[in-house]
Design a protein that fits this description.
6 strands, Nuclear Transport Factor 2, Chain: A, SnoaL-like domain-containing protein, 6-stranded mixed sheet, globular
Length: 148
Amino acid sequence: MDFSRIDDIVDALYKAISGPPGGQDWDLERQLYHPDARLVRTRVADDGSPIAFSFDVEGFIEATAPMLADREFHEIETRRRSFRFGNVAQLFSEYEARDAAEDGALLFRGMNMIHLFWDGARWWIMHIIWDNERDGVTLPDAGWYDQA
């Protein structure tokens, strides 16, 4: 797959994690990330304290595959704000997760913050961290995405 454009690697990111129960494309997922990449899943514990789980690509797949083995899951990018400087780019990628590809029920919304590296031939995801929307934490309004 060609990852010479930022749009292509981001499209592949959402495609790889989406699918019917157990239908994620883990081979594609592996192709997206630089060998030194980190993936960080955040959440809020029952006591209200923030938690971050940091993975390499294989660790992320091992932790995530069982959670999606028995459920349909589709993550869709809804808006993006991008900054590029030389061989690096930072993306704020808003997403929504649904339980079906077409007209599925909304499960949650959130923000992926993605750091990319251009090696002269292709883009690599070096780091991704995400958080879901919840009480007190809402996604930015549409105008925020238009600022540069």
